[in-house]
Write a structure and sequence with these properties.
By secondary structure, this protein is an alpha/beta fold. It contains 13 helices and twelve strands. Helix 3 runs antiparallel to helix 8, helix 6 crosses helix 8 and helix 8 packs across helix 10. It is elongated.
């Protein structure tokens, strides 16, 4: 006869046996659901990477989740096998940058427009004088992601993008003058993300989709720059830093381009060297802004790249110099770099052969009259063109520099 005690023990045994049988069978396990909600502290505002207009989809995917920063760009399936972490860490700075930000010349130009300013367009202090210029980029590029990045956001974004290269962040934070950080940011964001960087006081005249001639395959170009200065005069050194000077108020690039790798490494190395020596100060800088982070070092870096046989070998065997680009009135392609004439990014300056903003080759207008002025070392530096007025205009030649016809 089964007693109550025996029945209870038998029931407990059966339940235990069934539990262990179910837990050991993977087909009977309950499915799990992955949350697609972002962390509670994730700030809004950053959008997903684009290489053109985003495809329409109603499905919820990882890339559609709000992020505090743009997601990593997809890596080509053809890339080489991943290197061991220890091997990457021991590489020098230039090798680390090349590894972290791979250059794919055959890829598309990312549809990004990057700008920096103290305020976002949504803030009242943004400045009414900048609103039409800022809006022009959105209006002419409806399929692009357009970001105006504030100073605090810039540091947050760069810390994410360059977390694996801490020397870069150390250099960025060590720069003693805001305009130096603004210069450095444009190179850093284009190296990591690509797209277009343009100063807040620039107005888009034509869409970037029209900047390259139709006969030039987009897959053969990785960097698009414009000429800022082409002074055909004997005393050009009294007015400009280089005989041909490339502007850096507007740049278009594919991520990882070697020119960007080089200039980021150069500025990082120079900054950390001066920091160690104790010469990285705002009062007595070892280098001028032009030579340290501005158009002078930018121009030198481009010419160094064009004359590096690793990347490009001229058919005539001659070095690429200012003579290659002086006086051009149409886009000129050398290797994977397209150089636009002075009219393209400096229309209406009424010198050095620049034509008016209604010219077919005029793409971007830089607002030289209303550009933001920053007090730097008791001098005046301008957004985009950082050479102080004391280096550009001599007191005895007041009024001659910008309006005078070139002799």
């Amino acid at each position: 006869m089964i007693t109550f005690r025996k029945a209870a023990l038998l029931t407990a045994f059966i339940i235990t046996a069934v539990y262990y049988l179910r837990s050991s069978d993977p087909t009977l396990s309950a499915p799990t659901e992955t949350s697609v909600n972002p962390p509670a502290n994730t700030p809004a505002g950053w959008k997903q990477d684009h290489e053109g207009t985003a495809p329409k989809s109603t499905a919820v995917s990882e890339s559609s989740v709000a992020r505090p920063y743009p997601p990593p760009r997809l890596v080509s399936k053809k890339q080489a096998a991943q290197q061991p972490l220890a091997e990457v860490v021991t590489k020098n700075l230039r090798d680390q940058l090349a590894y972290q930000f791979e250059y794919d010349k055959g890829g598309k130009f990312p549809a990004y427009i990057w700008q920096t300013w103290k305020y976002t367009p949504g803030q009242a202090d943004f400045g009414d004088n900048f609103r039409p210029a800022e809006a022009s980029w959105t209006e002419l590029h409806p399929g692009f992601v357009h970001e105006v990045v504030t100073d605090s956001e810039a540091l947050y974004l760069l810390k994410h993008l360059y977390a694996s290269v801490p020397e870069v962040i150390e250099a960025y934070e060590a720069l003693p003058i805001p305009v130096m950080k603004a210069d450095f940011f444009r190179y850093l964001i284009l190296l990591a993300r690509g797209g277009i960087y343009t100063d807040i006081d620039t107005t888009a005249i034509r869409s970037a989709t029209d900047w390259l001639p139709e006969e030039v395959p987009r897959s053969s170009v990785g960097l698009v720059v414009g000429i800022e200065a082409d002074p055909d005069r004997a005393d050009w050194k009294d007015w400009y830093s280089r005989r041909i000077q490339f502007c850096q108020w507007t740049i278009q690039a594919k991520p990882g381009h070697p020119v960007l790798q080089d200039i980021v490494a150069t500025i990082t190395e120079d900054t950390l060297r001066m920091k160690k020596k104790g010469t990285l100060t705002a009062k007595k800088p070892e280098k001028s802004i032009m030579e340290f982070t501005g158009p002078a070092v930018w121009t030198d870096t481009i010419f160094n790249y064009l004359n590096n046989p690793t990347y490009f070998k001229p058919s005539d065997g001659k070095n690429i110099s200012w003579e290659t680009f002086t006086g051009i009135e149409a886009a000129k392609k050398v290797g994977d770099v397209v150089v636009l004439p002075i009219t393209s990014f400096s229309p209406g300056v009424q010198q050095m052969g620049a034509k008016e903003p209604d010219d077919p080759m005029a793409f971007v207008k830089h607002d030289f009259e209303e550009r933001a002025r920053h007090s730097v070392l008791g001098l005046t530096a301008f957004t985009g063109t950082w050479k102080p007025e004391s280096e550009r205009i001599h007191p005895e030649r007041e009024g001659q520099a910008d309006g005078q016809q070139q002799s």
